[in-house]
Amino acid sequence: xxxxxxxxxxxxxxxxxxxxxxxxxxxxxxxxQPALGRRIHHVEAEVGVRLFYSWYGGVQLTESGKVFVExxxxxxxxxxxxxxxxxxxxxxxxxxxxxxxxxxxxxxxxDYHALGMLPRGYPESGDxxxxxxxxxxxxxxxxxx
Length: 145
Known about the structure:
It is a single chain. The protein is of the alpha+beta class. It has two domains: 7-89, Winged helix-like DNA-binding domain superfamily/Winged helix DNA-binding domain (Arc Repressor Mutant, subunit A, Orthogonal Bundle); 93-144, no CATH class. The protein is 59% helix and 14% strand. It has helices at residues 7-19, 22-29, 33-47, 63-90, 112-121, 134-144; strands at 52-55, 58-61, 96-101, 128-133. Helix 5 links the parallel strand 3 (96-101) and strand 4 (128-133). The protein starts with 6 loop residues before the first helix and ends with a helix.
């Protein structure tokens, strides 16, 4: 087995599972139904198990299909995060929103809820927020030199 399954293949399986119908999934994916059906059969052949079974009016996941979709969701998410981080690096962004605060400010006074929302206002920075006191920030700078 060559495992020639692409991210697009995984997305097709996920959308078919979500829609419960090849025709609705094909419309959502902007594909023809026969092309989507061939792609699903290709994935099933590569994996070596049936992922769907047909029932009146649509398709339903087999038990193996449920596991495959669950893992595929993780794979697609991981791939999308990897691609975004690569784009961030290419544009000199590290995907981490860092906040440093002065030692004169007690960390208890910081609004952690608001800090957690900061990266949402700066989507190019990624979805991680790191809080560093001045001492921690200086230690990090010294280690990087």
